[in-house]
Write a structure and sequence with these properties.
single chain; alpha/beta; Aspartate Aminotransferase, domain 2; seven-stranded mixed β-sheet; about 40% helix; globular
Length: about 375
């Protein structure tokens, strides 16, 4: 059996059309976009086109797109760049944010000079932010900055970002959303979400690693993380990664064209997958909430997630025990902890994230393999008692 990739929330294979668009910019069109000769002019035109493609994907003007090296840099640019442009105050983030939001927020709180006070917005057992609790917290502690992700990378649960933005704006706060996992899976509209800034990334939508963007309100004040030649409207200096930026633009364009059909196809696969897993006794985290269609985060009692991931990999299925970006620090998922999942049960968590190339036969094969592995592990467990 050919290996099956079920870890698309970690990264995706570059689409053939994306790769084809990128290839000329490695050799034939290798100019520096800051140069004034024809090589540089062609490079600048390529960046301008990509900026329009990314902007169109979320309904903004090209000038609002600031290219970065990745989602982590874009999130840091907002958290740290906005904080350094304001008087220190209260910073609100959800308890389930990606580490590249959590860590810079914690760093701001630890500053010896002008620290910020960080507040975490709690989620319910389904992984959704409690809007009533958020309202009370923001009334008690007036926020200066707020960052809430659109779709969680582990559970796939979608947050009411527009509702939270209304609460934040009513208090005069600046609000950001990490929309990386939502782009290409659900409609993402900057204005409809009512945010001041938004993070996007290429490699989650069949584009290349090394390209991402911070989408900004034209009135938003940010201090750059990287100073230099003044690239990206002075917010991100450094020679642009033109092949990756070109790939990002094409990936955004393809994602918009394919989104509806892909979501319908993947939803069918996930429903079949979860039906089979539940029949084995699995619990689906976030099942009671609205989720992006490709994500299934589950646990089987008394079967450790890491063990299951290794067994499945040997059987030809690539899945994850939580988030890939946290794999260097294995342990309990902070997302499941925020959802009040028992720590011992949280150790059993496994994430399957489907992609547009997956098919029903792969899901059926996965379920058959799962049944064999689960039976084997339960037998070993019973013999060891």
């Amino acid at each position: 059996m050919k290996p099956v990739y079920f870890d698309h929330n970690a990264t995706t294979r570059i689409d053939d059309a994306v790769l084809d668009a990128m290839l000329p910019y490695f050799q034939q069109e290798f100019g520096n976009a800051s140069s004034r000769h024809s090589y540089g002019i062609n490079a600048r035109r390529a960046i301008d086109k990509s900026r329009r493609q990314v902007a169109d994907a979320v309904g903004v003007q090209p000038v609002q797109v600031i290219f970065t090296s990745g989602g982590s840099e874009a999130n840091n640019l907002f958290i740290r760049g906005a904080a350094d442009s304001l008087k220190p105050g209260n910073l609100f983030i959800s308890a389930i944010e990606h580490p590249c939001v959590l860590k810079p927020a914690q760093a701001l709180a630890r500053r010896s000079c002008d620290p910020w006070v960080v507040h975490q917005l709690a989620v319910n057992p389904s992984g959704q932010i409690d809007l009533d609790a958020a309202y009370r917290a923001m009334n008690e502690y007036k926020p200066g900055l707020v960052s809430v992700m659109l779709a969680n990378n582990e559970t796939g649960v979608i947050q009411d970002v527009a509702g939270i933005a209304e609460l934040a704006r009513a208090q005069g706060a600046t609000i950001h959303t990490d929309a990386i996992q939502g782009l290409g899976k659900i409609p993402v509209d900057f204005a409809a979400l009512k945010v001041h800034a938004m993070t996007l990334s290429a490699h989650k939508i069949y584009g290349p690693k090394g390209a991402a963007a911070l989408i900004v309100d034209k009135r938003l004040l940010l201090k750059p993380l990287i100073y230099g030649g003044g690239h990206e409207n002075g917010l991100r200096s450094g020679t642009e990664n033109i092949p990756a930026i070109v790939g990002f633009g094409v990936a955004c364009e393809l994602a918009q064209v394919r989104m509806a059909g892909t979501a319908q196809h993947i939803t069918k696969l996930r429903d079949q997958l979860e039906k089979g897993l539940v029949a084995m006794g699995a619990v689906i985290f976030g099942a009671g909430a609205e989720r992006i269609s490709n994500t299934c985060y589950f646990a089987l009692p008394d079967i450790e997630g890491d063990t299951l991931v290794v067994k499945l990999d040997k059987a030809g299925f690539a899945v994850a025990a939580g988030a890939a970006c946290s794999s260097v620090n294995p342990g309990q998922s902070h997302v499941l902890s925020a959802m009040q999942v028992d720590p011992m049960f949280a150790r059993c968590a496994v994430r399957v994230s489907l992609g547009n190339s997956n098919i029903l036969e792969q899901v059926e094969d996965f379920l058959r393999v799962m049944q064999c592995i689960v039976a084997e592990l339960k037998q070993i467990s019973s013999l060891s008692i």
